[in-house]
Amino acid sequence: MSLFNLEAINKKPFFYGFIYLVIIWVVIFAFVWLFTRPSVFPGLVLTNTGQIGDTIGGISNPIIGGISAIATFLAFLMQYLANRVHTRQFSEQATSQEADNHRNKLLYLIKQNRSIVENMTLQKHKGVRCLKKMFDEYRITHSIIENIINSLNGAEQSKKIDLSDEEKINIAYMFFYNGVGATSDKLNKEILEKCHSFEYFDATFKSIQECLKLRDPSMSKDMATLAMLGVKKFVYELKELGYKPLEGHNNRLGQYFRNFFHILDYTDSVDEKYLSTDEKYQIIKSLRSQLSNYEQMLIHINSLSVYGKPVRDHNFITDYKLIKNIPLPLIAFAGDIKQFYKDDNDNDSFKFEWDEIRERVN
Predict the structure, then answer these.
(1) Pair 348, 342: CB distance under 8 Å
(2) Could you tell me if residue 195 is inside a domain?
(3) Residues 200 and 225 occupy one common structural domain
(4) Spatial contact of 204 and 229, defined as CB atoms under 8 Å apart
(5) Is there a single domain that holds both residue 186 and residue 255?
(6) Which residue in 206, 174, 196 sits closest to 309, CA to CA?
(7) Cβ-based burial of 166 (10 A; exposed 0-12, middle 13-18, buried ≥19)
(8) Which pairs count as long-range contacts for 26-29, CB under 8 Å and 24+ apart, including other chains?
(9) In this structure, which of 168, 295, 315, 336 has its CB flanked by the most CB atoms within 10 Å?
(10) pLDDT (0 to 100) of residue 159
């Protein structure tokens, strides 16, 4: 048994404390006995020191007082250290609880997002099928915009229409998202009135909408004009969607994208002492794993419109690689998708899964 073995002392603190106390008292009384004996060494005489009680008190009191002072200090020190331990434990517990609250809220929001998709309806279509149909409608709408621009640029006019891929995407998205009609005109005109040739786009979509009301669109007087613009075939493609197109989807997609942005914004705003950057990425990655390809393509298209601009401004798509699973050939009609996601050195911000698949083939 070692009196200086810290591990043993921690296991039996009272036992070792008692032993130390006994040793201290033995030493005290040994000194008292020694100092009250006749001289042991020449020149050291203690018999004339006065009453024995005074001698014992004078010798032992400073020793006992010193030990008491040290014991009191050690008691306060242990209490202080114990308080620090408790404070740290309470702080860690509060931090852990706060982190769990953030995780639970994000899981709830993600579950809510999935519920929005599951409950989405588009006449006879429901759920993810709606997103596929809406993407097809957008693709056709974008193609109509492209053909109108090409037709007008091919005609003899002084000013050519020169729009970037992003501008074309935004114009097509406005007609897709808001629809065509009296109510939609208020929204589209407010946003697109400064766009060159907006009146041509608007008039063309209204002519297409009139054609779609007929059982046989070819009977419409507008078909000749649509044929001149090169968009006649798209009337039949819209007809085959199985629902009434060009009526807008803001009532369906509005709630979806508001919830989607809230998830991203909330995740990004949580302090890193509660959720680390890696944990935030893993949470959004779990959301991305539940997004269909068509959903990711609509997210990409929405982010390039004036409605979804905040998603791009906050770099959510690049930071969380939200659309990395898009099959690139399916979105090629809207230009090179990679041009929109470059870093400061003009390199790709992230690698698309499709590129990884092509590398496996090669």
Answers:
(1) yes
(2) yes
(3) yes
(4) yes
(5) no
(6) 174
(7) middle
(8) 28/60, 28/63, 28/64
(9) 295
(10) 67
pLDDT of residue 148: 87
Rounded Cα–Cα distance for residues 267 and 281 (Å): 9
Using the 8-state DSSP alphabet, how is residue 332 labeled? G
Q: Which residue type sits at 46? A: L
Task: Please indicate, yes or no, if residue 351 is contained in any of the structural domains.
Answer: yes
Low-confidence ranges of the chain (pLDDT < 70): 1-21, 25, 28-29, 31-60, 62-63, 66, 73-74, 77, 81, 155-159, 196
pLDDT tens for residues 58-71?
A: 666 766 776 777 77
Amino acid identity, position 75? A
Predicted structure pTM score: 0.76
Parent domain of 296: 101-119+249-361
The CA distance from 60 to 50, in Å, is 15
192 half-sphere exposure, CB direction, 13 A CA radius: 26
Check whether residue 143 and residue 227 sit in a common domain.
Answer: yes
What local confidence, expressed as pLDDT, does residue 92 receive? 75
Number of domains making up the chain: 2
